[in-house]
Amino acid sequence: MTTTMAPDETLDRRSATRIGSIVIARHGQPHADRTVRVDHRGYREWWKNYDLAGLHPDERPPEKLVSLAQSSDVIYASTLQRAIHTAQMVANGREIITDPVFLEAPLPPPPIWGKRKPSLWGVYARAAWWLGRHEKGETRWQAEIRAEAAVATLTAQALRGQNVILCAHGWFNRMMRPVLRTQGWREVEDGGDAYWSYRRYEKVKPRERG
């Protein structure tokens, strides 16, 4: 006797055998003045405004990233405007799922003397945070735990056979990389770490690990 499966059942079985890919992208260039020189207090205010900013009006997404978004089944973004704006520019009107689990790791500036450009304050703040300064905010250890949760959100979809793309942030994207590698995801495309950059991951098959 021949058994005919319903279309939905056939799709479910195909999804069960296929594993999707994961694309993790950095947002485009935000609309923020990076030429200003501020002290550590001014940098706090600058960063607060930076978190509220969308992308610069002249920003346009690279065609490759738009193509990857079009071939994705799920589009994620952090809840910060620069990430949402980036996702909107590549999504072409499709649904975007925002989640605070993908937020950038914090950047509390150390209270050192002098005025500097925001880019240099960012280097000092990240180094201080990495070494343990967090000012009662999220610690490096807590952010690493959050990176594991973020990866779990992405892989839960990919392991169901769906291609996933995330538009998020430079440093937190870096924190997800070792988690993905530990779980057997291989980086098959490396687009660097600049604005609009992306990295694409595929699951390593068991026979490929040896």
Q: Topology of this structure?
A:
Blueprint: H1 7-17, E1 22-26, H2 40-52, H3 63-70, E2 74-77, H4 81-91, E3 97-98, H5 118-130, H6 140-158, E4 164-168, H7 170-182, E5 185-190, E6 198-203, H8 206-209
Parallel strand pairs: 1-4, 2-3, 2-4
Antiparallel strand pairs: 1-6, 5-6
| Count of discrete domains | 1
What is the structural class? Answer: alpha/beta
Largest sheet data: 6 strands, mixed
Percent helix range: 40-55%
Strand content bin: 5-15%
- Overall geometry comes to globular
CATH topology: Rossmann fold
Order of helices and strands: HEHHEHEHHEHEEH
Condensed summary:
This protein has helices spanning 7-17, 40-52, 63-70, 81-91, 118-130, 140-158, 170-182, 206-209; strands at 22-26, 74-77, 97-98, 164-168, 185-190, 198-203.
Explain what you see.
Helices cover 44% and strands 13% of the residues. The chain is an alpha/beta fold and 210 residues long. The chain has a single domain, classed as 3-Layer(aba) Sandwich (Rossmann fold), CATH 3.40.50. It has a six-stranded mixed sheet, sandwiched between helices. Helix 4 links the parallel strand 2 (74-77) and strand 3 (97-98). Helix 6 (140-158) packs across helix 7 (170-182).
Question: What keyword list fits this structure?
Answer:
6-stranded mixed beta sheet, alpha/beta, Rossmann fold, 210 residues, single chain
